[in-house]
Structures are given as C-alpha cells and as structure tokens.
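Ticket #4471: structure output looks truncated?

Reporter: J.K.
Steps to reproduce: submitted the chain below (470 residues) through the standard prediction queue, then opened the result file.
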Amino acid sequence: MSQMPQQAAVSKCPSCEEPLESGDRFCGACGYDLSAVPARPVDSPTLAIHGVVPAPEGVDWPVARDSDGHGHPAPVHAAAELPGTDSGGSPLPPPPPAAPPAAPAVPAGAPASGVRFDRPGEPDEYPLQAPDPRLTAEPAPVPGQHPAPEPAAAAGQSAPAGPAAAEKVCVACRAGRVDDDGYCENCGHAQPRERDHMEQESGPVAAVSDRGLRHHRNEDAFSVGCTALPDGAPASVAIVCDGVSSATRPDDASLAASRAAGESLLGALPRGTHPQQAMHDAILAASQAVNALAEEPATAREQAPHQNAPACTLVGAVVTAGLLVVGWVGDSRVYWVPADRTTPPARLTEDDSWAAQMVAAGLMSEAEAYADERAHAITGWLGADAYELEPHTASFKPDRAGVVVVCTDGLWNYAESAEEMAEAMPPDAAARPLHGARVLVGHALDGGGHDNVTVALLPFPAPSQGAGSA
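Returned output as attached by the reporter:
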C-alpha cells in the first residue's frame, strides 16, 4: 500500500526551530545545512492504495445543488437524556439547569515559539475544572452505589432540608447537593463529567472517547456523521481533535474545532464540493473557531497574564463509494486496515512533530526520534498563537474493502505501527464499528491509559445503508 509522502521542507530549522527565510541555504542561528532537508511535495496528491492507478482526470463530481437538509452531525446523547425511574419505579425528576462554568485554569509557563508540548509534567497538575455548560447533562443514577438514605422521620428525627430544586443532586445518593468542586456534600461522591466517556454511532461510522486513567478531564472531542453527495452516493465523515494540554482551555478548543469542522464537511459535501477541498475548508473553519476562543476582554488578560491561547490538533477523514480523503494538523493520525488481513495496513498521515521533522531531515532514525523526550513536541496546531497554519490533505483510492482508523495519540501510543493497529482492531470492525472503537479504546486503557483516548472507525467503501442520516 502506498503511504503518504514525507512532509515538506520546513519553514523552521529542523535543528534549532528558528524561522527561515525563502532561499536560505544555511540556518542563520545554528548554521545547519538546509540542503539536507527534502523539498516539500505538493500537498494535494491522489495516491493509489495497493498499486491501483487513479482515474486520469480525478473524479467527475456532479453539478452542485442545494443541500437536502441532512448535512448536520448527530448529537451525542448522554444516559441522562433518556427517561428513567428510581429504585421504587417512580419517574425521575427533570434535571436541574447546569451551574455556571468555573474559571479556566491557568497553566504554568509557556512553550517555546514554534513548538508546543502536548503533555504536562505530572497528571496531578491538571485542575479539577467544571465541565462546559453546553455539554452538562444530569447523569443517570448509579445502581448499587450509595443508596438513598432512609427518611429521617422514620427514625424519629426531623427531616433535614434537601437541596433546592435548581441545584444539582448527587448521582450516587440522590439526596446530597453537589458543591462547586464536583463532590456530593452528603456522601462525598465525585460526580462524573459528561465528557469522561462518550460514544456515538451515525450510520456506518462510530466513535468513542474516554478520559483515560491518568487525566482529570477529557480534552479530546470528535464529530461523526453521514450525508449524501449530489448524485445520491453516500459519504461518511469523522473529525477527531486533541486539546493541547499546555494551553489554556484545551477541552474547549477541541470541542469547538470538532464541531466546526464536522458542520463544514457535512454542509459542503451535499453541495458538490470535492471532498479534498471540503476537508481543507473544514480545517480552516476549525482554526477560526479555535482562534475565536482567544478573543477575551483586555481586563481578563491583565488579571491572568500567563494564560496562552487555546489550542488543539485535528485529524479527519471522508469516505465515499470510491474515494478516501484525509486531512490533519498536528500529531493525531489516520490508519488504513484492509478487511483482508493478509494484505498490509498503512498509516496515511505524517505527524507535525519534532520527531517527524528529525526523521524527515535525516538527522535521526524513527526509533531514535520517538525515543527522545522531545518526540511529542508538536510543530503544527490550531490556535491563535500558531506560528503558521498548514492544513495537510491527501486522497486515496483503495482497491479493496477496509476500515479507516482516525485517532489521537492516546491510542496510537499503544499501537504505533500500522501492523500493531491492525492487530489490535477486531476482525469484524467494518460490520460493528462501535464495538471496534470500544475494543481499541480498551486496548489503550489496558496499556496504561496515560492520555485521553479517542478513535473513530469508518468502513470503506461507504455503504449505501444509512446514507443521508446524521
């Protein structure tokens, strides 16, 4: 299988990360010989998978027409959004309105220009922060844990005053008030967050995201959906974003980027926009959404001068009946796993990272680069303080059925090579994508779960069942 070419010659010195001017032959800071850096290929190739030659003039896309109204991503449903009853069979009361969000945490220190470290020093440095009010929903009661206390009147005591109707009630004891730190004042139970574990299935595409075992919150986000091209052919879409942990509000950044990119793709494809162009435009839309998070009053900046701009990485895929398009900025990845496991899988993206630049420049082997402590320093991200935005896109024409894996480094850290990813994925992932995504998340958790884990699976080719649903 063909693999994406190496990313091009860099606009920054591969050795010391200093910006370069056009035509420089040596780095003005460290004297590095830039002739050793390979030239960047054009970033819109159409490559063949397993040696199949693409059509001469690309894809003959039909004339655009108005959207049929299906270009909207499906919402992620929480368990609490479904009706339920208590242990006595009585209907549960409606969930109270969400509390206002806590002030965003201020990370310590700022990264060097042109490089961001997507990992803080220790997990305990993460602040315990209230969830985004747009995502807050009252979780369903947890059976078997901290049953509701017997009424005090039965014991001859006066009944204590319960929580006000507008306050959040503990999901464990269902009696105590939840304080601003997210703990029950009655039983001390920590309340789950909406984004700790998310699952969504939209037609043939599914995604799962988990907080992991070491982080205090989930800073990943995703958007999946299905739509139809103007000729009625089905198309599946998946966007996965990873918040940069060293930035301010990384969870808000990943959520804003995934929503903006997903909406852009599901709106453009039914209008006849070529999928590769639609992916490029979706990355720009995501970038604008993240940049907007940095717009804050000058007084807020004065009160918290050490805050930096929200930032995240992005990776996405569009699958149609005969075309696979990928796009990315950062170090999240796309893998191709053929249904016939006797044929080789492949990685379809190249990281925007220090390690990838060292390998591309021939300064280190891949094993040496990824063993270095600087390996995960990203050189490309979405955010107002990004040095420059370089959306990467590529299209492929697989000659056989398979599954496209779109994931953050929380997964590929435990299945880095394409062969390891294929081995971790169950054989029936194309028929059961949600089950396959759960298995892959479980693989990362079993390996240690040191990071947030998010993965989306898209069967190729896009099946006609469910086309147009979202």
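Triage note (M.O.): checked the attachment and the full token line is present. The first strand starts at residue 46 and ends at 48.
Status: closed, working as intended.
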